[in-house]
Amino acid sequence: MAAVAIPAAPAAADGGSAACTVPFEIARSQSLAGMRIEPGSYRVTVVDTSEMTCDEANDQLRSVLREPGAAVPDGWKIDTPTRTIARSDGTDAFRFDADMPVEGAAGSSLWDDMQTWMLTWLPIIFMGLIAVAIVWMIRYMPRTKPQEISPSSSSSVRWQDVEGVEEAKDELREVVEFMRDPKRFKKLGAKVPKGILLHGPPGTGKTLLAKAVANESNARFFAQSASSFVEMFAGLGAARIRRLFRHARKAAPAIVFIDELDAVGATRGNDISGEKDQTLNQLLVELDGFGASDNVVVIAASNLLEKLDPALLRPGRFDRQILVTPPDLKGRRNILAVHTRGKPLSEDVDLEVVARQTSGMTGADLANICNEAAIFAGRDHRDYLLTRDFEAALERVVAGMQSRRVITDHEKKVVAYHEAGHALCSEMLPSVQKVHRISIIPRGRALGYTLNLPEEDRYLKSREELLDYMVVLLAGRVTEHIIFGQITTGASDDLHKVHEISRSMVTQYGMGTELATKQLPADDYSMSDHTRRMIDEEQQYLTDLAHRRAMKIVGENRELLEALAQTLLENEVLEREDITRLVAEHRGTPALVGKERFAPLLEPGAATVAASKPLEGQPGADSPS
């Protein structure tokens, strides 16, 4: 059937008569009395329902359009302009008009439907995705909360567990006493320091001191690393600072410990994003702002005091700045005693000797040595630690792990003479630290090493002592040149140290000949080219002076040099006792003392030796190479 009928709609009143309208669908093209009717939706309207109902009009139109090219039935007429069909006498009139396409009805465009759907739902879906992304970001955002340390925790530290930093312990004990008994100090008008800054080299025990304060004080202790305040999200660092101090104020009296303060406390103005500056500003406000609390003490630790912002270091924020330095001899002995608790030691272990051999080391280094010694004993399946375990551990920490690299016989010989040259000059110069061990067994990046250990703690160095040290550093390279007639790349680290020492002597310590009364920082851009040239000449003079002295000592003690090198090739390792025996047997020149060491070299005009002038014994000089 060409036409599809749809049930009629309810009739509506039109003046005094009733009228009705019913939708009507035409599925294909039709022709009625020469009038073209296109497929689509139409509307059948009956003018007077008293003469004909909508269903009757619907049936009548369907019967007319049943066949293509249908004609008007007999007794009926059609008004083409108005598309009105009626009987010849004008009764039973009804008309059909084209209707607008019904949404979703048959014949509508699929693309129009898709456009309508997208315009309606895509904005809603897009906003929903944004909401999901925000929720996901908030859920998985890095969350760090302050760590509260209680005295009963497994990581708690007591005062007796901290050694070698007595001055810092005394300063912190006052804070602990104030937190325990504040009335005793407040009745005298005293106030607890708002901030205490522990600074010094890494490994000296700054964090360990903070843990001891957490254990000894009755106050609540909150610890957090300053790096946890630095995030990519704007304002997150400042929010974490506020949360940390909010928790501390609620639990007052409380102590807040911020580790590695330089992560957020660096001088402002160098951060491009401004996030670190905003975090630091919030920390400054919390330390000494309108909402500051007298019952919250801040302890911070940093390795870079010079990097911190001046506003952070002023009184009222960090009132006390405590320098935590590497321990002295007594401190090292006490630290070793702490870290050997619970470790069975043999009777031959003397911690006093170990402490003397570890001058300049920090508490972390000493703890590592004790642990390595226990590991060495465990490898040998022993139930106790021997002295050789501590010696092996010291060698492991200072020189590195023993390497399995295989070197040729010639390289082994070169390394043996190189290290023998270092040892020879160390024995001939009294101001230099004595050689504890020589080895040509590769360790770490070095093919061999000479281990010099001080006999006492020294904090000052004279010009002559620094020159002697440069002589020892250059002795290995000089020995290679004298014995083999050539030099190798094995002295690269020695040359680097010589450069650093000689540069510091001229620019920092005023130990030059003409530039002896002022300091010349390397980053001083106002320095003239003439002054820079003088610095280079002074530095070259000092290194040349040490080089000539090394050649003189090695040349005058060839017999002792050969004995040290040959014994080292046979045994691969020489201990202090072996070195002392060989020196006593073959020493040909008595040790020079004081300025006599440099007397032959300090003649008038000696300072004019330039870097391009061949030194005695070097290739290109008058003497044979």
Report the radius of gyration as a whole number of Å. 48 Å
Task: Report how far apart the termini are.
Answer: 120 Å
> Count of DSSP helices?
19
Question: Residue ranges: pLDDT <50 for 5 or more in a row?
Answer: 1-16, 102-108, 588-625
Indicate the structural class.
alpha+beta
Morphology call: elongated
Largest sheet: 7 strands, antiparallel
What is the β-strand count?
A: 18
Share of helical residues: 40-55%
Question: Strand content of the residues, in percent?
Answer: 5-15%
What's the pLDDT, averaged over the residues? Answer: 79
Q: Give the oligomer, counting copies of the same chain as homo and different chains as hetero.
A: single chain
Structural account:
- The chain has helices at 54-64, 110-139, 166-180, 182-186, 206-216, 236-250, 262-265, 275-288, 310-313, 329-339, 351-357, 363-379, 387-399, 409-428, 463-484, 492-507, 529-556, 558-571, 576-586; strands at residues 3-5, 12-14, 17-26, 30-32, 35-37, 40-46, 76-79, 84-87, 94-98, 147-148, 195-199, 220-225, 254-259, 296-302, 320-323, 435-439, 449-452, 573-575.
- It is of the alpha+beta class and 625 residues long.
- The strands form four sheets. Strands 1, 2, 3, 6, 7, 8 and 9 form a seven-stranded antiparallel sheet that branches. A six-stranded mixed sheet has the order 10-12-13-14-11-15, with helices on both faces. Strands 17-16-18 form a three-stranded antiparallel sheet.
- The model is unreliable at 1-16, 102-108 and 588-625 (pLDDT under 50).
